[in-house]
Amino acid sequence: MSSLTESRSVTGRQGGRRMPRLFGEVGPALPAFLLIVFFFVAPVVALLLRSVLEPVPGLQNYETLLGSATYIGVFANTFIVSTVVTAAALAIGFPVAWALVVMPMTWSRIVFAILILSMWTNLLARTYAWMVLLQRTGLINKMLMAVGLTDEPLTLVNNLTGVTIGMTYIMLPFVILPLYGVISNIDKAVLRAAALCGANRWQALTRVLLPLAAPGMAAGGLMVFVMSLGYFVTPALLGGTSNMMLAELIAQLVQSLTDWGLGSAAAFVLLLSTLVLYGLMLKFFGTSRLGGQ
Amino acid sequence: MKMLLTSVASLAVLVSGAKAQESMVFTSWGGTTQDAQIEAWAEPFSSESGINVLQDGPTDYGKLKAMVEADGVSWDVVDVEGDYAIQAGEQDLLEPLDFSVIDKTDLDERFVTDHSVGSFYYSFVIGCNEGAVSECPKTWADLFDTDKFPGKRTFYKWSAPGVIEAALLADGVSPDALYPLDLDRAFAKLDTIKDDIIWWSGGAQSQQLLASAEAPFGSFWNGRLSALSESGVPVSMSWDQNITAADSLVVPKGAKNKDAAMRFIAYATSPEAQAKMAELTGYAPINTKSPELMDEDRAATLPDRQTETQVNADMAYWAKNRDAIASRWYAWQTE
Description:
The complex is a heterodimer.
Chain A: H1 2-14, H2 22-26, H3 30-53, H4 60-67, H5 69-102, H6 105-120, H7 123-134, H8 139-146, H9 160-185, H10 189-196, H11 201-229, H12 233-238, H13 246-256, H14 260-290
Chain B: H1 2-16, E1 23-27, H2 31-49, E2 52-56, H3 61-70, E3 77-81, H4 82-90, E4 117-129, H5 140-143, E5 153-156, H6 163-170, H7 183-191, E6 197-200, H8 203-211, E7 217-221, H9 222-230, E8 235-250, H10 258-268, H11 271-281, H12 296-299, E9 311-312, H13 315-334
Parallel strand pairs in B: 1-2, 1-3, 5-6, 5-7, 8-9
Antiparallel strand pairs in B: 3-8, 4-7, 4-8
Helix pairs in contact in B: 2-11, 4-13, 6-7
C-alpha cells in the first residue's frame, strides 16, 4: 500500500511543467525509492521468476490457475467480496464523515478517538471479537431473538455475511478519514446556495455534495478495494471455506502444499489485477483528484 | 508468554554467561501443546545438558523448505505432522537421525523412520457439549447423520489424516479396508453434511466452537477435549473408532546445531519426558515405557488405552498421496 502511495506522489509531482526542478524534487525521495527497489521490486521480480520457473520453466502454473474452475471461483469470490465491502464501507462511511464535519467539536473528537483507537487495536483481537458477537449463541443473535425479529439464530459467521461485516468494520476508517478531509474542505455556502436555488435536500445531496465529495470517495474506495483484494486474517476467520479469498489460497499453496510455483503465479495475478485497477482509477479520476487536492 | 520468558532468560544467560553456551532452536505449533513441550522437554533438557533451547513457531512447511533450499536453516528440531515427516524425508529436506544418540528400542515403531521419531500421538474423537443437546452422537455414522443429530458439527479444516477416514467409516467401510482411501466415496459422504460443517483450523478454535455450542458436536483432538472438560465445560467424548495420527520430531537438512538437536530428541523421547508430556496434554506417549511412570488415573484417559476399536491412520499412504489428496480436498472445500 505504502509503495503505491509513494510512487503516486512522485509521479504526481514530476509530471509536466515542473521538469527542470526534477532532481531537487526527487532527491529527498531517494531513500524511499531505494527501499522500495530492494524490499518491494526485487522480491516481486523474484516472485514472477518463480512462477514461470517452478517446478519446470514454462507457463504451466498460469495454465493451472486460469484453467481450473476452483481457482477461478476463488478469484471471482475475491472480487465480489472486495466490491461488496467497498460499497458497504462507502455507504456507511459517507454519513459518518459528514456527521463528523457538522457535529460539535467535542463530539467529533470523541468519534475520532473511537475510530483511531479501533485502528490501533490488534487486528486478530478485533476479528475474534466479531466471531464471538456474530456466532449463533452470540450477542447479536440473542438480541435479535429477544426482540422477536427472528425465531432461529441467523448464520452470521463462517459465510459471506461474516466476512462482509468484519471487513467493512475494519475498512471503515480508511474511507472515513479521506472523506472527512474532502468534505470539511467543501464550502458549506454551496449547500445554502443550492437550497436558495430551489434544490430539495435530496437534490442538494446528489447534485452538489456527492459530486464535490467524489475525489474522497474514489480515494477511500480504491484504498479499501485494493486492501480487501489481498486481505487474509478476517476472511480466514469469519468466512467459510466456500468463500475463500486469494490471500488464503496463496497461503495454503505456499505453506501447506509447498507449491511455490503456483502460489507465486496466484500472487502475481493478484498484483497485476491490483495494478490494472489502480491504472483505471487514475485514468478516470486523475492523479490530483485521487490525492484529494 | 512463557515462550517469551524462556527466550529472554536464555538471552540473559547468553549475555552474562561466563563460558560460551551451546544453544539450539525448537519449533512447534505454539499454544498449550508447545507450552507443554517446553515444560516437559526443553526446560529439564537445558538444566541437564547446559544447552539452551530457544523457542520458535508456528511450524510452517513453506518456511522449512525455504530454509533448506537457501541453506539458511535456523531451526534445529521441528515438530511436524507424521505424514509430512515421511514426505519431507523422501524429498531430502531432513537430516537422518542419529540412532546412536537416540535410543529407539522402546519407541513405538509405528512412528519411527530414518528421518523422524514420534513426538506425541493423538486421536480424533467425537466430542459433544452435553449441556447444549439432548442426545450426543456416539459414532462417526451418528456424526454424519443430520436427521438424527441436526445442527452444526465441526471438523478439522486442513487436509490431513482424520476427516476422510471418518467419512468412510461413517459410510460403513470397515477399518481394515480403509486404505487405499476411496476418495470419491469419502467426498460423496462429506457432501451430505457439507452445509452443516464449521471448520476448525486450530485447537483453540475447536474448543471455542464446542464450548459456545456454535457447533455442539464434532471431531476433535482428544487432548483438547480433556482440557475443556477440566475447565468445567460439560463435554463428553466417544472413543468409538478413534482415529490416531502422530506428530513427529525432525531435523531440517543443514541444521546448525545438529548434535544438540539429536540430544534434544533423545531426551524428548525418553520415558520420563514422554510421560510428563502426556500428563500435561492428554496426548499419548510414543515411548512404550512411559505409561508405567504415569499416574494410573491419567494414563487411563489416553489414546494408547483406547485400542479396542482404534483405527490407525496410515501415515505411509498419506505421505505418498498427501499432495494429490490436498489439491482435491481444498478444491472440494471451495466448491
